Amino acid sequence: MILHGYWRSGTSYRTRIALNLKGLAYETAPLDLRTEAQGAEAYLRLNPQGLVPALETGDGLVLTQSPAILEWLEETHPEPALLPPDAAGRAQVRAMAAVVGCDIHPLNNLRVLKAVRALGADQAGLDAWAARWIVDGFKALEALVVRHGDGWCFGDRPTLADCYLIPQLYSARRFHVDLAGFPRLLEIEARAELHPDFLAAHPDRQPDAD
Amino acid sequence: MILHGYWRSGTSYRTRIALNLKGLAYETAPLDLRTEAQGAEAYLRLNPQGLVPALETGDGLVLTQSPAILEWLEETHPEPALLPPDAAGRAQVRAMAAVVGCDIHPLNNLRVLKAVRALGADQAGLDAWAARWIVDGFKALEALVVRHGDGWCFGDRPTLADCYLIPQLYSARRFHVDLAGFPRLLEIEARAELHPDFLAAHPDRQPDAD
């Protein structure tokens, strides 16, 4: 498989974690979002939306949108499971993932930050914008982890929720967000820092890292 | 089941469509987002994140986050299916849903528009902000529907992708977005206007509509 992504993109990072947790080998095809490499014609032929990530599965299929890619990985490579076996648990894990995937990350990615800057925000304004959505979402996640977590977001093994959370924590640090109010999330982050699949997915370990 | 939502919220609207397509009866518990009713203590006990929708399933379970609710509906009430049977098709439908759910809607909801206004945008600026993300996402969706649709977003029956698309088209009209460039999406909208399950889910038909 070939993963088209960007080292520091949260959606690429979460996809790498899931691929690693599933034990799947993949090649990295980097696109530098800062120079808008994702707008190049060759990539647009692969993914007309011009966003990362895209996963070429090797049988002619090109998957886009990380939530869809992660569900596809779970369906086609069920072991180890990244969703619980029961519908209620699965809904809970997906809800946690959506807090990051729908309520935090979409507001803080590069194309949106550029638009916020165009409205007149300076760097402090950008940090405040990002922090607002991160803190709101992390408050919800912290409460959910207190209720459902046991070392990881849900139970005692990594799930899709952790694939979403860890890159969002990395991003929160880039925006200088005070994370002291989220001890359970930090505990998960500390655990991920010792986990080879999360470690190998870290932006700094990617071939296109600065 | 009890659906806590708001007549004009896109995430509530998409959940109503899915419930109707599945033939599931539910009560409506309205929350007026304009007066921040979703921040009231009784609702926060149900959904600590204070966002809509939330679905009480009747057996003590409270589901939040519409992407998680829709997947739960599909798992627990598989007929009629809102996802194709094969993993590749499912990934395609989920990718279309994510274009709306991750790349468009999160940027245009009420809490975000308030934040954009606080950066100094006037009504024209808000419309331009919303239109930017809607047009970008609809371009991607139009191309995907050309490739995969046959009356609906994917194939000849409604899927989760249509549950996401129709509310986003409704929202696009509120922001005065020019939709002439999206003939295939408009064709789906016209078909939904004749479909009783989509009609019954329309904001104007909800008990809390203005």
UniProtKB/TrEMBL annotation, chains A, B:
> Which Pfam families does this chain map to?
GST_C_2 (PF13410), GST_N_2 (PF13409)
Output the superkingdom of the source species. Bacteria
- Domain GST C-terminal, by residue range, is 86-210
- Output the Gene Ontology cellular-component terms: cytoplasm
Name the Gene Ontology biological process terms.
glutathione metabolic process; L-phenylalanine catabolic process
Q: Which InterPro entries match?
A: Glutathione-S-Trfase_C-like, Glutathione-S-Trfase_C_sf, Glutathione_S-Trfase, Glutathione_S-Trfase_N, GST_Zeta, GST_Zeta_C, GST_Zeta_N, Thioredoxin-like_sf
Recorded GO molecular functions are: glutathione transferase activity; maleylacetoacetate isomerase activity
What are the protein's UniProt keywords? Isomerase
Broad class of enzyme this protein falls into? isomerase
The EC number(s) given in the record are 5.2.1.2
Location of the GST N-terminal domain: 1-81
**What family classification does the UniProt entry report for this protein?**
Belongs to the GST superfamily. Zeta family.
Under PANTHER family, the record lists:
MALEYLACETOACETATE ISOMERASE
- The molecule here is called Maleylacetoacetate isomerase
Origin species, per record, is Brevundimonas naejangsanensis
Coding gene?
Answer: maiA
